[in-house]
Queue: 4 jobs
Job 1
Amino acid sequence: MPGSHIPNRIACLQPSATVILDAIGELRRVVACTRYCADVVPGVADGSRAILADSWTADTAQIVATRPDLVIAAVPYQEKAVSEILRSGVRFLGLSPKTLADIYTDIGIISGAVDACERGNVVIADMQRQIDEIRTRTVTTTRPRVWCEEWGKPLIASQSWVAELVEAAGGEFLGVAGKQASAEDIRLLDPEVIVAAWCGAGDRVPLEKIVAQRGWQETAAARWGRVFCVRDEFLNTPAPTLLQGLKALAFVITPRNFPCTKGIRQITSVPAFTAENSTP
């Protein structure tokens, strides 16, 4: 039967896959997803789909019970769960992007899987166009030093795709993307802009607390009040959602050139430095 090879019941354990399917007009194929998918694609929480805990704790039996013909997840994933899913006869697609180029590839793969290659190419081209437009507007600007983190304990720099977006938005990305760093190392780099986008934290990063505990009060970013929380789904979801993160980065890095946008919270006060509240 024509089209019988195309998956019609997809379980998305990775929010980026849900965003991609929505962007190419194929959200109807999603029969199960995680609660984090609902943060980036509210339409999945309409009661017509099974909502799973998350990709790391979702029960395999619960996933298989939704009768998917394709499961999409981020890897590394639970090895036992992958084996059980494959033994059940369900196809498994693991995603592990690191760069913007990887993300474009993932969009192409998912689009091809659901016979929507042309729409996938349109989404990729639109992402590339919007990123290039902002890059063009920042090419002659002075580049402030930007520390961008995806986690606070341990302190971990944002992923490589965020580093690329920081550069496109006119900044100089500090640290090594995706790697741990010490508070002291970052203090010595003296960032001029600090962006916290902790995985799963939304916009709830305690900016004043982390500046005080890390002894960052004397960094240029803290002195100038340029410490920000950007909603984590805007920077940590490797999908078209990153365009909203790019707009946020463009504003916090070069506010004279770009308007404020949603998903940004700025520090309201910088705690005074004391030996008691600093962290070595």
Job 2
Amino acid sequence: MCHRPDAADRFPVDWLRLSEHRYLVTVDWPAAHRFFAPLPGGRQDPMLVAETTRQATMMLAHAAYGVPVGDQFVMQELGYRLLTDEFTVLAASGPIDVVVDCSDVQLRAGRLVGMRVDLRFQRLGRVLATSMGILYCTSARVYRRLRGASMDAAAGAVPLLPAVPAHETGRTDPADVVLARSKHRPGWRLRLNTAHPTLFARPNDHVPGMVLLEAARQAATALTPGHDFHPASMRVAFHKYCELAEPCWLLAGHETDADQGPVVRVRGIQGEEPVFTATLGTAVRDDG
């Protein structure tokens, strides 16, 4: 129900209804993972918060709201924020309690079509992070009509572009790099390794959202002098499907946000139209 075929990539392990639209989800965060690996200095990978948000939301949509397994999900927005400087492997691995509040729950003929989720991650009574997401659901029949020829085009082979050096993106394994050099435009081109066991764990007719989140993180890291960028917060808006068969260009720049201070803004462009916009910050805000 988490849409992860490999047990090593599944983090929710159980759930309990607390009230009509509030749930407690127990997750198990790894101390080591093939992709969501610990960062230098013993830091836990904050992208675990984003991935767990995605998985827990889909699990509850199926288990608590009865969404058929064959239905499709569209995540319109996703964001997280760390609430402690001690987001380390020691402090943020093992059993994690996640309280999930679902709001703006939209039902049509008793069927879930959309909702907002707000998550609070705690371990041993200590709040580690919060996150949010806005999700929409569609039946397999409607999804096929919506995607049309794009589903057929996605069946073709996707060329694997030469990767940017892994250290520039904050990765150690070149197979995990999702950035390629851009020869004729600013920024980078999205690199798709469709054989990647975590990013492309199952067949897709479009680029998975987690690939775009990772692209935003890697672009921010590549932009940062010394390539040491720790995204304590991220907020992503997905504007349209990112097609596998078309080039996607990534642009990143430093900006100042009124609430977060210095941030990196990353945009994904395909066919001269925005695919996603991401804002990443390094400041940890402990607001309780």
Job 3
Amino acid sequence: MINPFKNKKGLGRGLSSLIGDNETKSPSHKISISSIVPNRNQPRKLFEKESLNELTNSIKERGIIQPLIVRKSDDQDKKFEIIAGERRWQAAQAAGIHEVPVLVIEADHLKSLELAIIENVQRRDLNAIEEAESYKNLIDNFGYDQDQVSQFIGKSRSHVSNTLRLLSLPEKLIEMIRSEKISQGHAKILIGLENSLLLAEKIIKKKLSVRQTENLVRVLKNGSRKIYKSKDSNSLATENTLSEIIGMRVVLINKKNNSGTLSIEYKGLDQLDRLINVIKSNY
């Protein structure tokens, strides 16, 4: 795919500046609300009900002050796709408004996504997962890399990288972040932890702060290191030998009475099947 990225500063230039990049745009005018369709690339998935109700009441009294930004739909005749202003569109429908002010611009899929991201990030309307999914969309479907996303949104590369890493968390934990049951600050601490979901549930139940969560994870990590270091050399050697032979992580816990457990960690069903076949063929 051809990289569409151009040397621009995204958020630093602002939404109005990016709109100005388009050679063709029509003056603001009103169109039927039924001729408007939502943006297929809308970064924002959740719209807070209470806030939407407040906007609905405001529109009933004062109307829509700021026009929606739209483009002609490329797959629905006589329809316009929202680029910026979906929340206003939803509230206008709830308020019983039949026509809304719009600014029609020419924009391809990339420009539409860029403008939608700019509007939402500038207003801090996106939750952490929506922001991460927006960056991933730019990277996966429009040829951006992390440096280019960083330049475009006006934030550091480390911010982009850390935000994208949230998508590596378990799906249930991602939904907790999306619904704001835990914060992005909490979530960043849980990245890469095997028991991240269990810890997330503890954070919610105990109402732990980010600092308290950091301390809890630090204690758990130090505890696991102490257990590992306390193993005798024979147990460590056995773990290493078995791990090299079967290609999976092996943990051996041998108690004083010489009873204990031998755990083998597999990464997929193919490894599990291979492990089962080895055991069956030898016993």
Job 4
Amino acid sequence: MSIPRIWLNGALVPADEARIAPTDRGLLLADGLFETLLARAGRIIRLDRHLMRLLEGAAVMQIKPPYESRTLRAAARETLEANGLATNDRASLRMTLTRGPAGRGLALPQDPTPTLMISAAAAPAPPAGLSVMVSSVSKLATSPASPLKTLNYTDNVMARMEADAAGADEALMRSADGGIACATIGNVFVVKNGSVTTPPDDGSIRAGITRNDILALARDADLSVSEADISMETLKAADEVFLTNSLWGICPVTTVDGTALPAGPITKKLAQALEEAWASDVV
């Protein structure tokens, strides 16, 4: 089996030879950002949107990316090809940007040298359905990091630990008022009487790229769409629930806290619309 290759700071290197400084702030302080992307037969879905989000997040965190977007576009494709994934039906890419190595403590380095790494792997088909549980972990809108795709996933990991302990596939994280904010690895939607609702982009969630696709597609389909708080009562009364992220697209929720839920017609309709939109890249 061939050794995977990593694009690291401008060069493709075997993964077992890739070296990141032990003083890198991404490792020590989670001081960085990342993007996860899906490639279908070599075509990277929503690449420009992911790059834009990465660069916008870097601007907020005052990390100057060491490469321009056009270089990162080429690097992503080179990484796919170097790993023999350019013809795979599904492959995943991860771009990771950190502030780079620095001295001890929180003080920012005077002359930073950010780290940029891209890795690739084969991606399985999305699950046919997911069992979810409601976690005790909350997302806080007061944190400036909440809407950014930072390396700090401690809350998400702890919520996933609760899901694992409960025998569920995924966890739903709470909002500050005790409602539902998001899943650990994506956004959440509920459907009731044909109306589609997802929590608002109020700072407590990461408003995903696929989430935005679904909102646009639902409106194009003349569905009633709202960005509003989802209470526990709303979740329990939902006709359909589904999750979205950039690797799965849409994944139906088939069990909530042990209660079975069908993968309904709205979920299926939007999943098909998303598949077509990604195939033609029109959203």
